[in-house]
Each structure stands twice: as C-alpha cells, then as structure tokens.
Hints:
This protein has 13 helices and 8 strands. The protein is α/β, with parallel strands linked by helices. Strands 1-2-4-3-5-6-7-8 form an 8-stranded mixed β-sheet, sandwiched between helices. The termini are far apart. Residues about 1-35 have low confidence and may be disordered.
Amino acid sequence: MLATTLCKSVLLFTLLILVYFLLLVRWSNRKVKGMDLEDDTENQYQPSRWSKRCPPDEAVPLHVKIATNESNVARTTVPFKSNLRYGTREGQTFDIYGNGTLKKDSPMFVYIHGGYWQYLTKELSAYCVVPLHEAGVRVVVPDYDLAPNVSLSIIVQEVFELATFIMKMAKEDGVRDVWFGGHSAGAHLSSMLLSTELLSKLDDDSKAIFRGLFLISGVYNLKPLLRTTVNNALNLTEKELSKLSPMSSIDDQVKNHLNKSFNLVVAVGENDSPAFQQQSRDFHEVLSRRGIASKYIFVEEVDHFEIVENLSKVDYKLTKELIQLITK
Length: 328
C-alpha cells in the first residue's frame, strides 16, 4: 500500500516537472519571437557595439573626433566654396572642394554623410577630400535636413534635388563624369538615386555624365529598423518601406536609364555587424540581377566608422579603389 502511494506521488511529481518544463519552453519560444528578437535587431543596427578598437560608448565620439580632425585638414589645405545652395530648405547646402584649382573637365565625386539620417554635418564629413583632390577629383560634400525635423521621404526628395542640381552644374562647368557615394545612411541616400522616378527626368547629357555609385556600409532594406530605436526619430511605417528601401524600389527599367559604363561598388567592413554585412551582400546580388554592374568589397579589420575615416589615407584599400574607379 505504501509502495503504491509512493509510486503515485513520484509519478505526480514527474508530471508536474514535465508540465513546468513544457510551459518554460513555450514561454522561452514566445520570448525569442518577441522581445529577444527585437533586442537582437537593435544590437545588429547599433554599429558602435561591434567596434573592436574601443568600448561601445566611445566609438561614436572617437569617430566624430577623427572625422572632424581630418575634415579640418581638408578645409585648411584644399580651396573650397562653402554653403552653396541646391534647394530652398534650410539644410540644402553643399561645399565644393578644388573647383577652381583642377582642370575644367576633371571628374566630380559627391559624398553624402551618414548619421542614421539624424546626425552629422558636411563640415565634419570632408575626410575623403585630400587624397581625391591630389588625384585630380573635385569633391562635393552636401548637407540635408535631418530627422525628426523632416521625414525620410523629404530627405530622399532633397537628395533627388541635389543630384539634379549637381548634374546641371557639372554640365555647365564642363565636368566629364559625376559620381555619388556615401556611408551608412549616406549610402542609402546615394543608392536611392537608382530610381526610375529620378532617372526618367534627367536629360540625356546628365545621364551620360552620371557614371556610378560608391556605397559604404549602407542600409538598403529599412524594414528591420522598424524594431529599433533608430525609428524613434524616423517614424517609418510599413507603407513607406517599399518605396524608401533600395532593395525593393529598384525596378527593371532602371538599367535603361544608366550610362553603359555605369559602375557601382558596395563595400562593408569586417567589423560591421552581421546585419550590415548581409545588407551589402543582398544589395549587391539585387543589383546584379537587375543587370547593373556591381562590385562587392569586404574590407578587413575595420569597423563601421574606420571604414570611412580611412578614406583620408592615400594608401587605403577603398581610397585606391575609389580613385581608380573615378579617374580611369
């Protein structure tokens, strides 16, 4: 009798443990699908957390310090004109470097800064200027209005207006080629120029001098950002994603509007997050499927910030790639 009672007690205890375990697994799965996933997405889209050269809270201040110092070198050694306007909104200004010191037909590179569409300025984004100027390339560094003061849709429209203005100015000045590029959010904005909406409005002369894009550690699919704090200022909605994500907005007609010698580089760093690396690989593949010549470059031993800070160095891998692409 005692043995039977004891057996029943052990069985009941075992069943309770099993029920507890099943409930724990179910709760854990729910957590993975919910908050844990959101936490991971936030982590993937916080570049400072992936830097290996300093603690996360020091990564952005260090980048700003280096970018400012190198930009100041450019602003004190290369002749430039500042705060020229390309539109009517407050942020629609640009600086141009080397415009009066280089050959009339020398190529032009337009560099659009990053900062998650919310931070940074043209004044501390001129770090690529000196090596390019020495190679005979004039450089334009624009500002644009920032979120949350304006929406991302308006920022993209401003970049369309920038491209139209720069193409017109370049034609009038006799510039032979115009290239656009950018870092992070700037790479996104540059890639948005592969838009039938914009390209269909350019005249044939503008299309002829628009030679390519140089994209560095960009975000080309915005959907993951909906689950991050980045979206607190952007206020993106599901409805906007398709139009504002180059990964999905580039259609089959884009190729028909591009110069036959149009070239595109998609670069990403070894110490960028896996999500940023995947974004670059996926976008490169999308471009290739659309028949747009694209080169994927994986840059070793650099994080999300070093990958562009090093553009101030003439012997840096991406600097040499950019100069060769533009001047060949």
